[in-house]
Amino acid sequence: MHTETFTFKDIDQLEIFVYHWSLEDRQEPRAIIQIAHGMAETAARYERFARSLVQAGYEVYANDHRGHGLTAGHPNQVGITGAEGFARMTEAMAQLTDIIAKRHPGVPVYLFGHSMGSFLAQQYMYTYSDKVRGVILSGTNGKHPPTLRVGIMLAQLLASLQGSDHRSPLLMKLSLGSYNKPFRPNRTGCDWLSRDDAEVDRYIADPYCGGIFTAGFFRDFFRGLVDIHLLSNMERIPKQLPIYIFAGDRDPVGGMGKGIPQLMGMYDQLGIEQVTCKLYPDGRHEMLNEINREEVTRDVLMWLEQQPSLVAQVE
């Protein structure tokens, strides 16, 4: 597998760092998979998944979001996302899709979003859906409770009093603090990520993973979580857009499996025609890093194989 990295400038002239994984011989791919990673992690963590995709004839692009990974530039800058961070991340994803389209004219692009990246992808679905042929949502959730608006007000208050770049242990605790409780007794503070201890330890050891995020990040993130499930926005999602959702039924981000059927129901009420879902028994948040990750990857590849743009290539 060939690995390339490059950068591009977003709307604020911030250098966005990108990984590109492809076959060594650089033959034309069947499709492009664009990955949007989650909060407090990096795109580099998707190299193993990318290898499986590349071996199946795809190419993979994945950028580090602002405030993350090599876009942040240094571990002590992780979590600082700037003004309108949530929207700017989605805008940068659309810019990357345009770069991909120029590099690979006529090749279909599929968007894969995990966790925070899945919520960015949900925004992308009603803002830039004409750029992609389908969307895969991993470790996602449906509509959040009304108490999220309290979180917005608290984040706004902290940002006003202490600055948008103030790192907030309080907001971290309120948003993620309960995730490990179902897995007591806990071996680490990140047991909720996976049943694979080695994967959890690898996450903890990565200086670009974890950390305390800022009041400004949470303000914009919480606002984004409200906006993506407003009916006026969701009605803009094309009815023919293929969507694949997968998660573990022990994923606290998805309400221990309860949020996924709720999201499916929302899409059904909107009349979206091609929505499929798989919940993995006992799976936690990072299904690509779970003990059954090979099964999960095969299921993603199977869904891709069934997409009209790829079926047509075979025929």
The overall number of domains is 1
Low-pLDDT runs of 5+ residues are none
Beta-sheet strand percentage?
15-25%
Largest sheet: 8 strands, mixed
First and last CA, distance: 27 Å
What general form does the structure show?
A: globular
Strand/helix succession: EEEHEHHEHEHHHHHEHEHH
Q: Strands of the largest sheet, in order across it?
A: 1-2-4-3-5-6-7-8
> How helical, in percent, are the residues?
25-40%
CATH homologous superfamily name? Alpha/Beta hydrolase fold, catalytic domain
| Second rung of CATH, namely the architecture | 3-Layer(aba) Sandwich
Structural class: alpha/beta
CATH class: Alpha Beta
Q: How large is the count of helical segments?
A: 12
Mean pLDDT: 96
- Report Rg: 18 Å
How many DSSP-defined strands? 8
Question: What is the CATH third-level topology name?
Answer: Rossmann fold
Question: Which short descriptors sum up this protein?
Answer:
Rossmann fold, Lysophospholipase, 315 residues, alpha/beta, MAG_DAG_Lipase, eight-stranded mixed beta sheet, 8 strands, AB_hydrolase_fold, 40% helix, single chain, Hydrolase_4, globular
Q: What this model shows, in words?
A:
By secondary structure, the chain is α/β, with parallel strands linked by helices. The protein has a single domain (2-314), classed as Rossmann fold (3-Layer(aba) Sandwich), CATH 3.40.50. It is 40% helix and 16% strand. It has an 8-stranded mixed sheet with strand order 1-2-4-3-5-6-7-8. The longest helix has 19 residues, at 85-103.
